[in-house]
Structure formats: structure tokens, C-alpha cells
């Protein structure tokens, strides 16, 4: 059965999908290791973790086509990598890894693939591979559902991590303590039930000094109320409330 070469457009879209997926996975792993309270940890971002993330990223990115010559992006776009002299055989893991190393110089790769008649970039020429339309590609619906699902997971993870980071900070805990001890707020909203899933605001700490702002939804048994809190953290000191409005 004769199969056709994959279009340049499909290959570009597949590459972008892979790039964002791998970046998301790597960032997710780093954030999970750091924990949601990393903002207020002494010493900032651990250098060792940054060093360890580099080889993990290399393995993820350069080895992305290791499953039968097909990465997630290529599966979505219905294309696959095959040997130059056999459209039915997947290249070795070594060749699949080697062909992706040249993506480091992606501007040059883009120029090469535009003008190459077989749509080969430098990595393909070195590893002796071609990218074809996958004759055994999955149906369109599962692929569409997968890409939508990936987008939803990405969105939910980022929101959840940001919310968790804001809520675990000492600044937020101080703001909540002030709200719970405020008699006027308690009389207005009644017994406090919750503070909403996602507080808006930000926390910034640099060289031991910090600034934080929160807009917290207070959910009571009688009604809801928004409370705006601003805080500062002097160097080597504790958080202090500078503004408290409702």
C-alpha cells in the first residue's frame, strides 16, 4: 500500500502540540515537587531542581517519537515517522532520538523543510527518516476529544495550583484570621461557611521582602461579601496588614 508524505502544515502543528504538552508536563512535575508553598520558601527556586529538570526535558522532547515513531502531536495530526527506505518500518529508538536533536536549531530546520522536495528537515536527513500520513491513524473523534481534554486538564491544573499557592501563603492565612476575628463582617454575613475556590490577587516576595493583595469572597449563611486585603512583609519579618476593606 502506497502512503503519502505528511504535509509541512501537519508537521508544524504536531510539533507545536508536542512542545506545549512536554512543557506542561515538565512544569507540572517541577511545581508538584516544589509544592504550593514554594512562593514563601527561603532561597527561592532550587538550583539543583533546575539542573535536574534539564535532562528530564531533553528525554521528554528528544524522545517524543519513541512509541512506534509517533508522538502525541503526530497521533493527533495522523502522521508518523518511518525509515527512509521503508514506509512500513519505524526507525530505531536511537535514530528517533537523534532526528529530534537538531530541533535545537529550529529556524534552520524550518528553512530546510520548506525547500526539501521530500519534506525532510536536517534531523530526517541525518537519521534517514521520512514523515508520512499514518495509514492506521485513529478516527477523528477520539483525537479531537483528546486535544480538548488536554486543554481542559492544562487549564484546571494551572488554576488549581495558583489557587493552592495563594491559599497556602502566610499572607492569606493572616488575611483569613483577620476576617474571622472581625465582628462586623461576622454580623453581616452570619456564620462563615467558605471563602470561595479561587481568591484573586497576587503574592510577590523578593530578597525577603513581600507585597500581597487579595480579593477574598466570604461566603456566609446569610450573604456573601468581598473583602480586599493588602499586606506587606518587611525583610526577615512577618506579614502585616496595611489595608482592610469590605
Automatic annotation (TrEMBL):
<protein>
    <submittedName>
        <fullName>Uncharacterized membrane protein YckC, RDD family</fullName>
    </submittedName>
</protein>
<keyword id="KW-0472">Membrane</keyword>
<keyword id="KW-1133">Transmembrane helix</keyword>
<dbReference type="InterPro" id="IPR051791">
    <property type="entry name" value="Pra-immunoreactive"/>
</dbReference>
<dbReference type="GO" id="GO:0005886">
    <property type="term" value="C:plasma membrane"/>
</dbReference>
<feature type="transmembrane region" description="Helical">
    <location>
        <begin position="45"/>
        <end position="63"/>
    </location>
</feature>
<feature type="transmembrane region" description="Helical">
    <location>
        <begin position="12"/>
        <end position="33"/>
    </location>
</feature>
<dbReference type="Pfam" id="PF06271">
    <property type="entry name" value="RDD"/>
</dbReference>
<feature type="transmembrane region" description="Helical">
    <location>
        <begin position="144"/>
        <end position="163"/>
    </location>
</feature>
<dbReference type="InterPro" id="IPR010432">
    <property type="entry name" value="RDD"/>
</dbReference>
<feature type="domain" description="RDD">
    <location>
        <begin position="6"/>
        <end position="128"/>
    </location>
</feature>
<keyword id="KW-0812">Transmembrane</keyword>
<feature type="transmembrane region" description="Helical">
    <location>
        <begin position="96"/>
        <end position="115"/>
    </location>
</feature>
<keyword id="KW-1003">Cell membrane</keyword>
Amino acid at each position: 500500500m502506497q502512503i503519502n508524505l505528511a504535509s509541512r502544515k501537519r508537521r508544524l502543528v504536531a510539533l507545536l502540540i508536542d512542545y506545549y504538552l512536554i512543557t506542561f508536563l515538565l512544569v507540572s512535575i517541577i511545581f508538584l515537587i516544589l509544592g504550593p508553598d514554594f512562593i514563601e520558601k527561603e532561597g527561592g527556586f532550587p538550583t539543583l531542581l533546575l539542573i535536574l529538570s534539564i535532562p528530564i526535558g531533553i528525554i521528554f522532547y528528544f524522545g517524543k517519537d519513541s512509541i512506534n515513531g509517533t508522538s502525541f502531536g503526530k497521533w493527533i495530526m495522523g502522521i508518523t515517522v518511518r525509515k527512509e527506505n521503508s514506509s512500513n518500518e519505524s526507525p530505531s529508538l536511537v535514530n528517533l532520538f537523534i532526528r529530534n536533536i537538531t530541533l535545537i536549531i529550529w529556524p534552520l530546520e524550518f528553512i530546510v523543510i520548506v525547500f526539501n522536495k521530500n519534506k525532510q528537515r536536517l534531523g530526517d536527513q541525518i537519521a534517514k527518516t521520512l514523515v508520512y500520513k499514518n495509514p492506521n491513524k485513529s478516527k477523528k473523534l477520539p483525537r479531537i476529544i483528546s486535544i480538548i481534554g488536554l486543554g481542559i486538564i492544562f487549564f484546571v491544573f494551572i488554576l488549581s495550583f495558583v489557587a493552592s499557592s495563594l491559599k497556602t501563603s502566610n499572607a492569606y492565612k493572616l488575611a483569613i484570621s483577620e476576617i474571622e476575628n472581625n465582628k462586623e463582617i461576622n454580623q453581616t454575613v452570619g456564620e462563615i461557611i467558605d471563602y470561595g475556590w479561587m481568591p484573586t490577587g497576587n503574592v510577590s516576595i523578593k530578597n525577603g521582602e513581600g507585597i500581597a493583595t487579595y480579593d477574598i469572597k466570604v461566603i456566609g449563611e446569610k450573604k456573601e461579601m468581598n473583602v480586599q486585603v493588602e499586606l506587606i512583609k518587611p525583610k526577615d519579618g512577618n506579614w502585616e496588614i496595611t489595608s482592610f476593606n469590605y
